[in-house]
């Protein structure tokens, strides 16, 4: 029986032992009754001369990986698709908060915050009261994008709590007590 040896022809002959595929681009595959010369992984075509990746380029620095009779592109972060052609829109998930504008970039995004917010995703409400803008024991109320002052009696103003001035006849009457700014009616 061809391809076998031994007293009862039960030992398979490995025809590839004699290296019948002389060209290193070929791989010898032993079969029951002979052998076949197949292209090494990564080569194809007549004479095993070309790589599938040489004719199927992956874009945007993607890496071509060959398999038996096929190839695949492994994309860099930020890209997708069979040839890594498509830029992933990182803004599609709406990462920017509080009315911020999202700008897509390659493998990242940037948020442009509206006034009163900060942080990578504009998630932090700026505390406009942190600088203690309300003078004269006024209470600062942190609002969206601004602050308001709630003044104690004798003071006025939404942004600072200044002394109240009274018009008495033709003269302005302001009374300042030493060591503390207070306004009194005269």
From TrEMBL:
Citing just one GO molecular function, the answer is: calcium ion binding
UniProt key word Ribonucleoprotein: no
Q: Which SMART domains match?
A: EGF, EGF_CA
- Which CDD domains does this chain map to? EGF_CA (cd00054)
Q: Which cysteines are joined by disulfide bonds?
A: 75-84, 113-122
| Top-level lineage group | Eukaryota
Keyword line? Disulfide bond, EGF-like domain, Glycoprotein, Repeat, Signal
Q: Pinpoint the EGF-like domain residues.
A: 12-46, 49-85, 87-123, 125-162
Q: Which Gene3D superfamilies match?
A: Laminin (2.10.25.10)
Among InterPro entries, the record links this protein to: EGF, EGF-like_Ca-bd_dom, EGF-type_Asp/Asn_hydroxyl_site, EGF_Ca-bd_CS, Growth_fac_rcpt_cys_sf
Q: What is this protein called?
A: EGF-like domain-containing protein
Q: Which organism is it from?
A: Pavo cristatus (Indian peafowl)
